[in-house]
Amino acid sequence: MTVETDVVIVGAGIAGLVVALEAVTAGARATVVESDDQIGGMLRRGRIAGVDIDLGAESFAKRTDAVPRLIADFALPLEVVAPRSGPAHLVSQHGVGLPGARWSRLPLPRRTVIGIPADPLAPDVVAIVGDRAAERAAAEVLDAPVDPTASLADVVEERLGEGLLRDLVDPLCRSIYSQPAAAVPLPRLHPKMWEAFERTGSLLAAAAEVAPNAPGGTAVGGIAGGMWRLADAVARVAAERGAVIRTGTAVGRVDPASGPGVAVTLADGETIRADHVVIATGPRGAANLLGRDSRAIDAGATAPIQPAVRLLTAAVTSDDLSAEPVGSGVIVAPGTCTAAKALTHIDAKWAWAREALPEGTHLVRLSARADDTAGLDSAAAVAREISHLTGTRVDRGDIGEVITTRWRDAVVPAESDSWTATVMDAAARGIHVTGAVAAGTGLASVIPHARALAHELFAVPSVRKES
Ligand SMILES: Cc1cc2nc3c(=O)[nH]c(=O)nc-3n(C[C@H](O)[C@H](O)[C@H](O)COP(=O)(O)OP(=O)(O)OC[C@H]3O[C@@H](n4cnc5c(N)ncnc54)[C@H](O)[C@@H]3O)c2cc1C
Q1: Which residues on neighbouring strands pair with residue 327, listed in sequence order?
Q2: Among 139, 150, 162, 435, which is 20 to 30 Å from 290 by CA?
Q3: What is one Pfam family matched by this protein (predicted)?
């Protein structure tokens, strides 16, 4: 059977759903096909200790106004909220393997962009990187070439020094973008910071312009009740306006149709013919559907791309955690001997979670590399890790329910030239790519890219007045 429509969107993550919403709002017929049983992709709902929470993205960066603008433009019934806690902390181990090796657990500095400080001599920066590295960073090398293809690590090391890169920029880059600073150029990570850097010729001046004045790690926004609600609300409005959203059905092939348009073949053999196809699947799916190996996307980064991410979300009964010892959570510096690479104290961070939980019950999320099986496979290990990272005492008996989530497509490689050529060639045939694979990781990038693509395809005016 062949069905006809104006656009087929492959993948009901936030990118695909936003394209669908824009398409139907512009009067086009849109069908979204999602392989999973639920919509949302990395905006996924879980339930623990009787509370609905996020098992994927749990906040959005404020480097763009993408999320509040989407909510306002489509009058989505969602409340944007700010984190409630003090700064997140950076846990580092100094002198690993040497006598006198020590741990530090320090608040993240207030005014930084991916760890690049507005003032390298600010006490909260010096506490982490030390006097020498702070003084080196303050003496920024201003006459180095400005190269948009250089990695963030190369730019920071050359201008601000190795110490700042190692102790602050790289840990934050890994934490925010799931990639080492050596793997990706600044323009792709943070276009606004790059624009300010190009204009001023100084990383410090750019950070002074762009850095938020908020406790470290809290310059993000959230949605009351969880970010999964954003995907839910977009899907609901898109469906109300006529989008067809099919779950539990994978798209197997996308080919030129025998007449005009593109033929989309579902795993069950059904075909949908459309004028446009938008692939919003994540890197692996996009590479498969465009007939490439997923490694073809990778620009041959100078550092290995991290493998998939494993999250453990645990309900913990602990009076010590009620004092919120690490604010919204912990980022672990590379090279530190821990099983988890980050910890989020969910109810310290979000008031809606705190209000939903009984007194003394906490929700803690540990993130680890998916291939790192050591260290987090029992309640005792989870308790030990939480104790370790927060500096409090948590015992095995304090750990209640634990949810494990694996994300295979969470890391987006920097695009290779041959991948860019593949994408452009496909676009000429009516097959377009959006989502994190095209825009970079994070809602602040993914949503504007999806909206811009939909505006281009369906001639939506860029400023919309919703009734
Ligand atoms: C643990 C975690 C925490 C994160 N935290 C944050 C955060 O705090 N803030 C932030 O801004 N970003 C965060 N991110 C990143 C952010 O979630 C993603 O960049 C964004 O959600 C990607 O959206 P997407 O629509 O491009 O892809 P996805 O959400 O991956 O959606 C792709 C969809 O396509 C479907 N699909 C794949 N192949 C097929 C096929 N062949 N046929 C049909 N369907 C298919 C998949 O099932 C999936 O539902 C986080 C990500 C993870 C994993």
Answers
A1: none
A2: 150
A3: Amino_oxidase
Rounded to 5 degrees, what are φ and ψ at 462?
-70, -25
198: which 2 tokens? Answer: 């190009």
Residues of the chain with CATH 3.50.50.60: 2-47+224-300+412-458
2-47+224-300+412-458 homologous superfamily? FAD/NAD(P)-binding domain (3.50.50.60)
Q: Is the shortest distance between the CB of 14 and ligand 1 below 6 Å?
A: yes
Bridge-partner residues for 92, per DSSP? 104
Q: In terms of CATH architecture, what is 83-108+215-220+306-410?
A: Alpha-Beta Complex (3.90)
- Find, among 411, 421, 414, 451, the residue nearest to 188 by Cα: 414
Is the Cβ atom of 435 under 6 angstroms away from ligand 1?
yes
Q: Does the CB atom of residue 281 touch ligand 1 within 6 A?
A: yes
Better-predicted residue by pLDDT, 178 or 238: 238
**Does residue 218's CB lie within 6 angstroms of at least one atom of ligand 1?**
no
pLDDT at 464: 45
Asked if residue 176 has its Cβ within 6 Å of ligand 1, the reply is no
Q: What is the pLDDT of residue 294?
A: 62
Is there an atom of ligand 1 within 6 Å of 282 CB? yes
pLDDT tens digits, 208-219 = 998 877 766 667
Question: What CATH number should be reported for the domain whose range is 109-212?
Answer: 1.10.3110.10
Which of 42, 234, 244 for mutating ligand 1's site (highest number of atoms within 8 Å of CB)?
A: 42
Question: 145-190, pLDDT tens digit by residue?
Answer: 888 989 999 999 999 999 999 999 999 998 877 788 998 889 888 8
Residues 6+ apart with CB under 8 A from 89: 105, 106, 107, 108, 326, 327, 329, 330, 331
